[in-house]
Amino acid sequence: MNSGQVRSGLIIVDKPQGWTSHDVVGRLRRLAGTRKVGHAGTLDPMATGVLVVGINKATRLLTYIVGTTKTYEATIRLGQATVTDDAEGEVTAETIAAAVTDEEIRAAVANLTGDIQQVPSSVSAIKVNGERSYAKVRAGGEVNLPARPVTVSRFEVHDIRRENGGRLRDVDVTVDCSSGTYIRALARDLGAALGVGGHLTALRRTCVGPFSLEQASTLEELAEDLRVLDLDDAAADLFPVRSLSASEAEDLSHGRRIGATGNGQPGPVAAIDPDGRVVGLLEDKGEQAKALLVFTPGNEKA
Q: Which residues form the tRNA pseudouridylate synthase B C-terminal domain (predicted)?
């Protein structure tokens, strides 16, 4: 299959455990026959679930998808802290968590819900003096990342179990959160708040913005049928839609300004021409609409 046969759009992947997000991109480059492939938000190798991948022109939408809200199903183990804040790292401290009650766990979860200040995991991809934080940690260095604001709109406990003869407690949760929230850091901070340490043992991303597991395909399924959500449909799913007149579409495609959308909403609007094709993304600036990006007509990869 060559790049001329694969239209621009999004592929919603159910990422398998053990694969990096970069591994998935490499696999889809081969399946789609194009180098122009990218993803919207890294999933750690341990994690599974929704990874949004852009093909050809749709890679230009990825910047806007990264900032959308996300939903995760996770299991947090209380009683052990690890160097990576997840099960892939060496245990750095162990404390018997048998005395921690369900009520204390739920209260600590409530304190980590809402608008909070979170220190990212030290093994995140955040750059420190030009070097990835995780690379510095794995080389034996120390990293002190500043706290930053994130929003955890839902932190719901589904089950609390005793493990390892009651020494440890496992907590199954669902988290709805803003972009930039680290679920590993929530696990770490929950354990720290309870005085017993904590880390993440399982993580599955179930939603990225409007895209969920229901739309996702495994890599095996994609090898049989490369399901691509067309660029026009993807833009309409992601953003409010503004229907353009033929003259407005012509002006926008040639870089000329058009009147404001006037919907009173911040953020991008998908500009759709009379034939149902996305021309670009707009944002109101006073009485005019500013083009955030414009898709070049014709050339599939442009």
A: 184-227
Q: Residue 187: which of 94, 297, 76 has the closest Cα?
A: 76
Q: Is the pLDDT reported for residue 99 higher than 90?
A: yes
Instruction: Let me know whether 202 and 98 are in one domain.
Output: yes
Neighbours of 163 (CB within 10 A): 14
Helix (H, G, I), strand (E, B) or coil at 153: strand
Over residues 207-217, the pLDDT tens digits come to 999 999 999 99
pLDDT, tens only, 43-82 = 989 999 999 999 999 999 999 999 899 999 999 999 999 9
Q: pTM value?
A: 0.90
Q: Which of 14, 44, 170, 284 is catalytic?
A: 44
Task: Identify whether 273 is a catalytic site residue.
Answer: no
Task: Dump pLDDT digits (tens) for 244-259.
Answer: 999 999 999 888 889 9
Residue 60 near residue 231 (C-beta atoms within 8 A)? no
189 and 93 in a common domain: yes
The verdict on residue 86 lying in a domain is yes
